[in-house]
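Form P-L/3: holo structure prediction, ligand pyridine-2,4-dicarboxylic acid.
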Amino acid sequence: MNEIQYRNITVWLVEQISAGQPTQVLLQAMCDRGWRRDVAMGLIAQAMGERTDPGAVAMPTTGASPQTEVITINGDASAAVKPMPAPAIDDGVLYLDVGDRRVPVLMHLPRPRVVLFGDFLSKQECDRLVETARPRMQRSMTADPRTGETMVDTVRTSRGMFFHRDETPLVRTIEARIAKLLQWPVSHGEHLQVLHYRPGDRYEPHYDYFDPTQPGAAPLLARGGQRVATFLMYLREPERGGDTTFPDLGLSFAPKRGSALFFSYPEPDPSSKSLHGGAPVQAGEKWVATKWLREGVFE
Ligand code: PD2
Ligand code: ZN
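OUTPUT (holo model):
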C-alpha cells in the first residue's frame, strides 16, 4: 500500500462516516476487499478522529443494509462504495427472517461471498414452480459475447423458461423473499428463470457477469447494468450428480431440494473467483430456479 492509497481510503472513510455509514459496514467492506482487519480498524478510527490503537475502537455490532463493497480501480484505492446484494449475516447468526419464514444459514464464505441456505422454499412451492414452468420449457440459451444476441450453446444443455416479474402469486412471494433476504430491491432482479437438466445435461463452468471487454456486452448492460450476484434455488434433486461447483474455490454444492445458493461478484472479472458450473446430472432430473441480480433497475 502506498501513501496515495492510504490518503484516498482515508478521504473516502471520512466521507462515509460523515454520511452516517456504520463503522461495521465500512470494516466489512474493507476486509472483503483485502485490507487487513487491524489496519482497516486503525484507519477507520483515524478517520473518526480517534487514536489509531485498534484495541481502542468500539465497533457497533448491529448490521446495516445495504451491504457495501469498497472498489479499488487499477490498484488505486480511490475507493468508491458499491452497494451489493447480500444477506445480513452478523456474527454467529443461524437463521434470517424473510417475513414469511425463517431461513437457515447453512454455510458462508466471506470472500468471495458465497452463502448456502436451507429451507428457502417448501416442497409444495418447489413442486408448484416446476409444474407451472414445465409446459413452457425450451432449450436454454447463452448470450453471445461478440454480439449480445442469445444463442443455443453446447456449454449449456439444459432446458429453461422465464417467468414475468410478479407473474403468479408464488413468483411474487419468492421474489419478495429473495429481496428481503438479500436486501436488494425486486426491481433490480432479472426475471425468475427455471432450468431443467436431464441425465448428461450440464452447465460448463462460466461467469454469470457480462464480460465488459466484449463488444456484445453493451446491449446486455444497457438493461439494468451489470449482474452482481446470483441466487440459485434447488427445486428438484436428481438421484445422482448435478452439483453446483466452484472450480477456483474447490467447493461443490449438492442440489438439495428447497435449499438455495447465493454468490456475488462485485467486479466483473476473474478476481471475483465466481467461476461456477453445473456438473452433469448422472441419474434422475434436476430442476433449479435462478435469479440474477443487477446493479440497477431491470425492466
Ligand atoms: O444449475 C446449476 O447448478 C447452475 C450452475 C451454474 C446454474 C447456473 N450456473 C446459472 O443459472 O447461472
Ligand atoms: Zn451461472
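COMMENT: Residues 206, 208, 230, 276 surround zinc ion (ligand 2) (CB under 6 Å).
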